[in-house]
Amino acid sequence: MLRSLRRAADRRRQINGRYGWLFNPYTGDELVAIDCETTGLDPRTAELVSLAAVCIKGDRVLTSGALDLRLQRPASLGADSIKIHGLRGVDLNDGLPVDEALEALLDFIGNRPLLGWCVDFDIAVINHHLRPRLGFDLPNATVDLAQEYRRRMRRTQPQVEPHMAFESVARSLKVPLMQRHTALGDAVTTALMYVRLKQGACEAV
Amino acid sequence: MMVDIDLSQAPFSLLDEAGRQRVRRGVDLAYYDTDEIILDAGQTGEHVFLIHKGEVAELDTATTERIGHYTAGDLFGAISILNGQSRYRFIAEQESLCYLLPRSLFETLCREYPVFADYFRQSLTDKSRLLTERRTAGGITMAGFMLARVAECMREPRLIDADASIAEAALRLREIGADSLLVAADGRYGMLTKTDLLDGLIGQSLDRATPVLGIAHFPLITVRPDDYLFQALIAMTRHEVERVVVVEGEQPVGVVELTDVLSFFSSRSYTVSLELEQAEDLDALARASARLPGLVKALMAQGVKLRFAMELLAALNGRIISKAFDLTVPAEHHQDSCLMVMGSEGRGEQILKTDQDNGLILADGADWPGRAEQMDRFIERLLTLGYPRCPGNIMVSNPQWVDSLGGWRQRIDRWAERRDGEALMNLAILLDAHAVAGNPALLESLREALFARCSHDELLLSHFARPVLSFSTPLTLFGSLKRPTHGIDIKKGGIFPIVHGVRTLALERRIRPTSTLARLDALVADGRLEAEFAADLGEALSLFAELRLNQQLARLEDTGKPEGDANLVVVQRLSTLERDLLREALHLVKEFKQRLSYRFHLEYS
Question: How do the domains of chain A map onto residue ranges?
Fold first, then answer.
């Protein structure tokens, strides 16, 4: 409710601006899987380390046109998060400034719906950076794969409590894990899992 | 880049790193559900598919026949792009994750990398040739030959005075066993060949006493000792001669003959056999024998067909054993005894030295005191020559494998009567026996007796054929290769069924040759097998043997000794091409087994 109100306000403000087209309803059949690696798990303080987006069209995951961005070293980059995504300060030396990265991301996703694993977190982190700079939140429709999977499992196998870790869901959908904990790898794995889920594959682990 | 795509195999190995990087950046991913049609017959090909995971079947929609089967790492759809549309239907047999290489990128790569394009234009036979050629080009061995110098391959110059007569020259040639002489005349040198002598005597009707100066050729065609050997070859070709003289300054220091160059290029097989023939004692023999593995490797690197390599090696091994026998056994016993080699050695199918399997036939009533000690010494000598003892003790030092002709006949009767596992194995071993030293007539009459006793005994033949079925062919229900992590046993799954099946047929049809390939030829001539099927079986056997040999050679390089089980082939390590060939060969084995079990009624027990 709050979100739709906010979106309506954003839209009115942006309607004649550069990003007005993002608020148009989407009529195509594509989806964009996104994932970002961040410096922490709290969306209010976490900063972006890398961003990836890959387009899904029907059965295909268009990895050839994927977006894979690395950002400039954020101030809060610490040992804990480096252990997970493996991107050290040095690795981010030639990273993009946040403004440019966000622009590239917006141009890539357009008004297509976004897909992600617990996508709300990613959106929250992105919005946290987007609003101060451009004055609006991502208006795109979202699909959360974790939720979709849980829903599907409840419908097909109500007696089983699904195991909701990313890895075990991938295993149950028979999707090989692409490079885990890189933004692009996770985005592609998520995209593949979505394709599989649409095809109706579902087995208990 | 994130895509975990293996581009180290053909055809991508034909690209350079930049090309592979473009493939990595250019592919998309697609997931296909079981039974989903990936590419239908008649559709235009828009992608090349590379399977990351899963299995895909290729079906002919007209006849519903299975054309092919693809699994992880395999590639399909390229031909459809080249032909404009797909001839067959590709359908996912399991859920399959494929990389999709777009048509435009594929075509660009084909344009920019002709080798890459060639790979797809060729049929399977061409592909195997490509494989061989690549192996040749990749092998350092060939480079070794190309870089050989004249000095490594020249003979001593044989000189004769200019005023010597034709008769003297002919005598001299005969003495030294050469084809040519150098004629020295006041500081100049000329060439005199056998052909020149013939021409002089017959063509020009010269007298035997005519001096050779008149018929020798001046001036000489020369090379220098540090020239490359192929330059000598070029000189010979250009001047249409068969020998050139090596000069240093003005002095001739050697002669290079065409045959020398050719045998040098054909991996020195000729020189090994020459060295072998000239060996006068055990040490020289051991030296020659130690050169065999190198010879094998060189032959393989040059892509010599395995069949010919096997024949050559069998002949050389036979000569070594025969020489060792001659050196050990006094000449008076040669006539009334026959040394036979058995097993793979008898069939001439061992490439690297394996165990010694040998036996001795004595003429009836032969008297040979001290035989046992001599046989022990013979075995010891073979051991020093690099032939390990037979673990089954099938050796002439074992009285079980030494007997008179009459004794052997009784044994055959006994074995044929008993028909138990051991007896049948002994019969099979004896059937492959090949005479290498002594009097071969003894073995021939023994073989005659064996055929007379066994070839009409249907019950015996049926028992004899049964082991063919004792190992299953390593193919899955769907006709693709099984791929256990420790590898599939190609000896049990491929080589043994062919060898033993052909052996059984040979026993039935009384076929004398012992090598499997020769037996196959004879069975075709006999009408027992169709020529095409026999040729395919032969090819399959060569493929198995080659795979095994490659592993043996690799082990030889690693450890210095052929250790471990070279029969285990890990399918995952083979290239797609080799995998295709192996699969087809195993299908042939399966068909052969079916034919045999039909012919010898093996399905009933």
Answer: 2-144
B491 vs B482: which has the higher pLDDT? B491
Candidate from B2, B25, B102 with C-beta closest to A178 = B2
Q: Which CATH architecture has domain B281-443?
A: 2-Layer Sandwich (3.30)
For chain B, give the percent of residues with pLDDT over 90: 7
Mutation choice for B interface testing from A50, A59, A173 by most B CBs within 10 A:
A59
d(CA B343, CA B354): 10
Name the token pair of A55. 């387009």
Report the C-alpha gap between A59 and A153 in whole angstroms: 21
Cβ–Cβ below 8 Å for B32 and A174? no
Calculate the CA dihedral of residues B209, B211, B216, B219 and round it to 10 degrees. 180
- The fourth-level CATH superfamily of domain A2-144 is Ribonuclease H-like superfamily/Ribonuclease H (3.30.420.10)
Contact across the interface for A60 and B32, Cβ inside 8 Å: no
CB contact under 8 A, A178 and B52: no
Q: Is the pLDDT reported for residue B120 higher than 80?
A: no
Mutate to test the interface with A, among B1, B2, B3, B98 (most CBs of A within 10 A): B2
- CATH class for the region spanning B150-265: alpha beta
Of B4, B29, B102, the CB nearest to A192: B29
- The per-residue pLDDT for range B228-252, each reduced to its tens digit, is 777 787 788 777 788 888 888 778 8
Q: Are B282 and B324 in contact (CB under 8 A)?
A: yes
CB pairs under 8 A between A and B: 56
A59 touching B (Cβ < 8 Å): yes
The most confident of A72-86, B282-296, B588-602, by mean pLDDT: B588-602
Q: What is the pTM of this model?
A: 0.50
Which residue of B lies nearest to A52 if distances are taken between CA atoms?
A: B2
Using a CB–CB cut-off of 8 Å, the residues of B that contact A are 2-4, 25-33, 52-53, 95, 97, 100, 102
Side by side, the strands of the sheet bearing B251-257 are B222-223, B243-248, B251-257
CA distances, B77 to each of B40, B103, B450 (Å): 11, 10, 55
Question: Stretch A69-92: mean pLDDT, rounded?
Answer: 80
pLDDT of B60: 77
* Percentage of chain A lying above the pLDDT 70 cut: 97
As a whole-number percent, the residues of chain B with pLDDT over 70 amount to 88
